[in-house]
Amino acid sequence: MSWVTGLTTAQVAAMTSSQIASLQTSDIVALSTDQLAAFTTTQIHQYFSTLDIAALTTQQINLGLTTDQLAAFTTAEIGALTTAQINKGLTTDQIAALTTAEIAALKTGQVTALTTTQISQGLTTDQLVAMTTNDLAALTTTQVKLGLTTDQVASLTTSQVVALTTAQINLGLTTADIAALTTAQVAALKTAQVAALNTSQINLGLTTDQIVALTSAQVGALTTTQINLGLSTAQVAALTTAEIAALKTSQVAALNTAQLSLGLTTDQLVAMSTADIAALTTAQVRLGLSTDQVASLTTAQVAALTTAQLNQGLTTAQFAALTTAEVVAFKTSQIAALSTAQVNQGLTTDELVALTTAQVAALTTAQISQGLTTADVAA
Asked: What does pTM read for this prediction?
């Protein structure tokens, strides 16, 4: 048994420098929590080696070390703490007492040893910001999900956000966490991180302001599933024309009819490339585009419509909504693809009169005999 066990806290506090320096690790481990608390921060710093620190029991850490003593630890002494001492020893108050320099000095193994309670109730936002990107990336998905609060997530630097793994994002961040991200943090996400978002995080997490903050590259990284099942009509409506123009044809083809008819504005539709317009399915054209949207198409977009989109996609009401300028923009192959119903019920006399000679020549005999009325022919 160590000779120090019989000392009172007053006697411990009165120990000379030489007496403290003579303590062996076995003596230090034998100290009661009250005796340990009696040492000054200077005494611990000068006479306790990193081996002594690492040898302290979890009980000594938990009940013996004061917040002042911990705050006075050097980075080497902090680095000497074992994962068990951190996980089972440190209280939330002790965690909160650590300086930002001490937090930055933690090794990744020590960071992953933190409990979710220590993280959520102990770590301050300033301490979290002080963590290295490697330490942050080392957090488990459980630590992220159950440990980090929305305020802590919102406090992360853009460098730290970029350091998050796809697993931490997909399995760790809640929809509330996603919503708490600033637009600067969202804009800093790597394309792989954006692609890792699950549909719930997109649908229930991303705000319209965050949607607007996405870069063209980030929008282009969205998967077809994220678009089809994740984006709400309000989120689709929030996309900028630049973001719409950045969509790939596969992404456009993934838009559901509700997103097209209730979300997409005419300005957004006009911003689509001709390749994107041509990529729309016949169902998207028929059930997704409103008559106002059809009427807003540019002549270049109209000319890009496939014969299937025209013949099987556009309803007679949609066709009737086309302007004369749009009809005149039709290629001869598009004219020939029109159904007799579209010709009969969709083309106005003004549009017929405006047709070019090449377009008139492209009309099939069936279109003329079954589609045109006597009034049309007379016109």
From this structure: 0.85
